[in-house]
Amino acid sequence: MNTKKILCMLIAFLMMLSAFSASAFAGVSPNASEASSTADESFPSTFDEDIASSDEEPRRLLGDADSNDAVNVKDATLIRKFIADLSTLDEISQLYADVDRNEAVNIKDATVIQKYVAGISVKEAVGYPFDADPETYRYYFYMPYNWLNESTATTGNTAGIYWWDGTNSHTSWPGSPAKKSDIEGVYYYDVPKDVTTIIWNNFVDGGADSEQPEYYKARQTRNIPTEYYDPMESEFYPEGTKNFDGMIYVIDSSLNPVSDYGQKYTASGEWFYYYGNGEYGTAPVKGESKVLTGDTFDYSSLLLDNNSSDTYRYFFYMPEDWLNESTATTGNTAGIYWWEGTGYHESWPGVPAMKADVEGVYYYDVPIDVTTIMWDNYFDSGADPSAPYYNDSHMTRNIGTEFYYPGESEFYPEGLENYDGMIYVIDPTIIPINDYTRPVGCGEWFYYYGGGEYGTAPVKGESKVLTGDTFDYNSLLLDNNPPDTYRYYFYMPPEWLNDSTATTGNTAGIYWWEGTNAQERYPGLKAQKTDVEGIFYYDVPTDVPSIIWNNFFDGGDDITEPCYTDAIPTREIKTDGYAPGQSEYYPEGLESFDEMIYVTNFIDYDYNDYSGKLQLGGEWFYYYGGGEYGTAPVRGESEILTDYALNIGYFISDNEIGPYT
Questions:
Q1: What CA–CA distance (Å, rounded) separates 91 from 19?
Q2: N or C: which end of the chain has fewer CB within 10 A?
């Protein structure tokens, strides 16, 4: 019998003796059920009967040269000192220090332990009980960035892994911290082969009290079987898999089933072959399938790719102001929804869109038989307008996805066969109200060039290149087909702002109903802000004979509604200038009001004959910039005014005509 076998028998005897002694002197065994656990869903936890409490003493780990039940840098240092004859190791300690099991303690053993401590993969069974099966499978995990929070920061912002059966099963949640891999967000752990189920988590124990804030800081997956896929068990692997060794588990962000044990989400996902550097796919060799990246994926979209279903890729530039505290709970992502055609969605707001190459730009591969979609901010605020978060939900109108007939769009006069590869961008100047009294975004399709750039020509540079999460339809149309315009300024009184205007951006609006680009509905278009608070402008085609300035809110026609009086306009303002003698301020007349500013007069008001709403009159002035205006074309040749309205007190002109009424 060789020395190694004798030592093994001696170790076993000592362990039995140690266990007997601990039982005899302590009288009780450690109770694993006292450890905290919040493992959710139908998997075992310390509240389940399936986790047995351990009455055994911990088994000494391979690499634990100093016999302190841990493998760390002290063990490597002790081995180095032993090799240099600066310290001693008894025969049993030498057995544990010999991590490569070559019956010799040397520098290689110290190096292996140092790699293990540093989180570098080693083939030796360092850290496992001496007599445990050292064979393991390496499982990777891409932890979603939105799993990080204040609680994870206290535990190192790392993924965790938990299992309750097989070698080294955990007796408390959330298990062990995972090892960091080669790219931010990707983790791995070498799990014994006899472990049949694991749970990935964000290494936070949220407790069992759902009324505590910490409860919802804990994130986890469902129970994940680790054996293999049978043939046809997975649509991605129709021939099955041998095992999941070396594969990565990635979350499908559109699947968030709620645990049977509480209101926590237990994320679901899929195994992929991991190629390194954050790239993965459904083929063992990179390039033989679609190469994916990112901390989540979309099952339905990828399945369409794998099955070569005909799809169109639609992009969307989600406005930054669609993000809020409510969207933060669902990942601050765009969503997409359709209700007919292949893969239609049974519930609002559909599924989260995929992140594109620029912050704020998203995409989704939609089956070609889908004729209508809606983009949204992936938050369902319900149907109760009185709910505090009701206005946190944003969406577009129903967007047709088939094609443009020739002449249907002013940007694409020859029409379009489809919108494949194009991007939908919101025009914030158009905010129609849907049937449920919620604003819905309207916009236009553009050719997407990547990098957040888009335009009306298929090739970049053949049309104006646009950027930004919104655009101005009328302004762009003028750029594409520039008519002659006049620039009109407007000083909007702060009294025109209220709770209703806050929902549309606290901006002035401008409306005209005849002439080039006449508006189909009130309140028309959002005006452009100047560098002075309260002063707005708009470039209006010269053939427009009349305009109305307003506070960009349509209060409706029902006088009993609270918001009815929140909508305030001017009366109809003629734009064809003044004839000689028509105005006391401009006795010689004016050819146009180009570059002039309209200022309201608080005592010049009446009520619209059709809507019954209050409407204000006012006067045109030469605008000098900086919020200053007057009755002379050159600054300083008349009194310089700065008030946002006339007759806030008396207004005396240079001609001393008295109050203007």
A1: 21
A2: N
Q: How confident is the model at residue 123 (pLDDT cuts 50, 70, 90)?
A: low
Q: Are 569 and 515 in contact (CB under 8 A)?
A: no
**What fold characterizes domain 60-131?**
Type 1 dockerin domain (1.10.1330)
**Percent of the chain whose predicted confidence (pLDDT) is above 90:** 43
pLDDT per residue as tens digits for the range 46-80: 333 332 333 444 568 889 999 888 899 999 999 99
Q: What is the DSSP letter of 181?
A: -
Q: Would you state the pLDDT for residue 478?
A: 59
Give 32's strand partners: none
Tokens representing 291 are 């190469």
- The 10s digit of each residue's pLDDT in 331-355 is 889 999 999 888 788 788 988 898 8
Three-class SS of 544-573: CCEEEEECCCCCCCCCCCCCHHHCCEECCE
Tokens for 468, please give them: 């930004």
Give dist(CA 172, CA 176) in Å, integer.
9
Cα-Cα-Cα-Cα dihedral of 475, 481, 482, 483, to 10°? -110
Task: Return the DSSP state at 52.
Answer: P
- Residue 449: the pLDDT is 92
Q: Look up tokens 């149309």; give the residue.
A: 477
Q: Which two tokens stand for residue 399?
A: 């967007």
Residue of 497 and 462 predicted with greater confidence: 497
| Closest C-alpha to 539, from 487, 466, 581, 481 | 487
The encoded tokens of residue 454 equal 């888009």
Taking residues 118-135, what's their average pLDDT? 71
Per DSSP, the residues of 150-188 read HHHHTTTS--EEE--SSTT--SSTT-EEPEE-SSTTEEE
Alpha helices in 464-518 (DSSP H): 473-480, 499-502
Radius of gyration of the chain (CA): 35
Q: Is it the case that residue 259 has pLDDT exceeding 90?
A: no
The rounded distance, in Å, linking the Cα atoms of 179 and 191 is: 12
- In the chain, domain spans: 1-30, 31-57+132-307, 60-131, 309-479, 483-646
Map residue 83 onto helix, strand or coil: helix
Count Cβ atoms below 10 Å from residue 434 Cβ, excluding itself.
Answer: 11
Q: Does this model's pTM top 0.90?
A: no
